[in-house]
Give the backbone structure.
Amino acid sequence: MPRRRAHNKDVRCPSAEANSDFPSPARTLSGCLVALFIVAGCGEHRARTPVYPVHGKLTIEGVAAAGATIFFHPATVIDASPLRPLAIVDADGGFSPTTYEHGDGLPAGDYIVTASWPLVVVNELGESNAGDDRLKHRYSDPTRPVARIKVVPGNKEFYAWDLQ
């Protein structure tokens, strides 16, 4: 059976025409993204809860707990908020909690402080991952915290904890 060839010289793609009524997919996507950014930019901006400086030092049996994470949980339901402040302990054991920006502090209130110190595991690709908690979860439960603290406006708080 012989093959037939179709000769469709007059077939045109509407989006390829300069004066087409159909916008190209790229133009449609661009328009949607611009509209999305305009709508997002017009939304309400919530005022930030003021934060106050808090600093400290965390050691484990006298040794700086470099890389440990300290979590600051609101102590009461009244203080509960979507904010989840935390601090990462530096090489000297020092820390400054972050609420919005690195090391900016904590909102006023009472906090339950917990901590974990993950072992850093490097896989065969050279990627670092969190391993087991070197503190064996002794201080990661809010019912058995590292400490309870109160942040007061105007005070510059410093806490030193040496865990066993």
Summary: Helices lie at 25-41.
